[in-house]
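Write out structure tokens for DUF429 domain-containing protein.
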Amino acid sequence: MTPGALVGVDGCKAGWIAVHREGDAAPSVSVFPSFQALLDALPDATIAVDMPIGLPDFSSRGGRGPEALVRPLLGARQSSVFAIPSRAALYADTNDFTTIEAWYAAHRRASEVAFATSDPPRGVSIQAFGIFGKIREIDALLIARPEIRGRVFESHPEVAFCRLNGGAAMTLPKKIKGAVNPAGMEERKALLCRHGYEKSFLDQPPPKGAASDDFLDAAAMMLIAGRIASGEARPSPDPPLTDSFGIPVAIWA
């Protein structure tokens, strides 16, 4: 990929799903086993990713700041934005889990640390804990490679869909009780098509190891990468905060 490439990324079961395009070429979709592999394959690209970037040392009510700012925009979709616990909680247990018991034990340890590093004290939701490994993966890269901080940006799918929809949140959920909601998916596909996607591209089966909602979220993220590259996107908060490593903290859309 040459400079000017745009990449939208979401975490998925197999690693990371990326919808990417170069210049005016048609978009492509790929799955990468690691975020490092994605960076290697897509050098110099502007990347928008659905993953928290920049971690707090102490978690206050509502999350890091960006979460509290964007939730009111989303109406019924605001539960999709969850608070991020402290960096210490995220790194409380970095083992690979071989049993479900070990996984739940690690969740309890992370919650204990989160309670001690938050006000009001709060533990860690199972939903948030499930993506801790991916948050750490990006965090470690941004700490080790400060030069990528200017091209890897945090976004959030529902905030992206809201911004792309003229400030109106999506009316239908993407999922109901953990299962994909076809009507909610079609609502989002129609919006993405208004922003230049071909319906046939969005209707294709997602790559192996990624779910259909991951694919649509990555497609929305690519549009935000385009907005960032063109100077249209805005961060929440504006200007962004920074964490103790100097990593910017903001949700872009």
